[in-house]
């Protein structure tokens, strides 16, 4: 009798666990794509902005191109009530978060939100420390699909423990929510993040410039805490072994269309994030972007490289000073190859098949993914003229 009871209890346990887990294993099988308010709007966010962004996702074809998540970053919260429930800023979001999430869902999109593992967010609003289960239940009740979880004001908390705690809280709340860990790479989250988060930031914050940087302090250590996209790119080398379906390195949100970036730099930034299998979170004002920027971020052939189901992160395979070759293996055995010219002049350079892991003695076909043109068959190597601060991206296939 005792044995039968134990057997029944384990069946019930297994079943309830399986139900709670349902859907979690299917999250972020390709890098998440969407928009986040931070890079352009900082703390100045409100419900009209978010609704307009959701509308634009449909009107401008962003949804058709694969962008799915509409995410509000820091600044939506204001306080906690006496029972510890998080309070939404009523001036910015008078209709409440549930209403906003519903609106986003009516467009066939997904809704994301932001919190912090410490007692306060980076913007000085209440963090989730001590309220992890309560907040996760609230997010699930609101219909949240994505949580970006930051690392300000965490004192001597352990990052793996803090992120695991929130991950468990989300699972317990029962709604599959993509979990984006924003710990800035401080404790090498790529080494412990798989199984906890679906993506983890690998660096401090990106800025909309080529290679600018600013020094600041993190835990009393002086570091470059704001960086242009090429500096962020350099910090991705070697991390490719840690990425795969459901768990991605996150070199931060896109700055395409922002700040001082030129056309060629925007194309390079977008292409390299596609090659890196990076999450593609637009960070510009998508309501007011130029046609040129829209064309860049909706290049379906580049997006297909990013979203390739094999889930390999591309890596640098050749480095001749200012002339770099980055290559990403694709599911059909082909390669996406990005020639990146960091110099101040246009330059001709290229790669051989063996450098990108293909047999040297076969003729491969090439397609230029920005010109959207077949280039023909090539024998052993390919060279192209690459604009200054720009790229040429080709697919090598047979
Ligand atoms: C940190 C994060 C940013 C953003 C801000 C919000 O700096 O790295 O991406 O979320 O906090 O305050």
- The count of helical stretches stands at 12
Largest sheet: 8 strands, parallel
The total strand number stands at 21
Fourth-tier CATH superfamily name of the largest domain? Aldolase class I
Detailed description of the structure:
By secondary structure, this protein is α/β, with parallel strands linked by helices. The protein has 2 domains: about 20-305, TIM Barrel; about 315-395, Immunoglobulin-like, CATH 2.60.40. It has helices spanning about 1-20, 40, 45-60, 60-65, 95-105, 130-140, 160-175, 190, 230-235, 265-275, 290-295, 300-305, and strands spanning about 35, 70, 75-80, 85-90, 110-115, 145-150, 180, 200, 205, 215-220, 220-225, 250, 280, 315-320, 325-330, 335-340, 345-350, 365-370, 375-380, 380-385, 390-395. It has an 8-stranded parallel β-sheet. Helix 3 (about 45-60) packs parallel to helix 5 (about 95-105), helix 6 (about 130-140) packs across helix 7 and helix 10 (about 265-275) packs parallel to helix 11. It is globular, with a radius of gyration of 22 Å. The model has no long low-confidence stretch (mean pLDDT about 95).
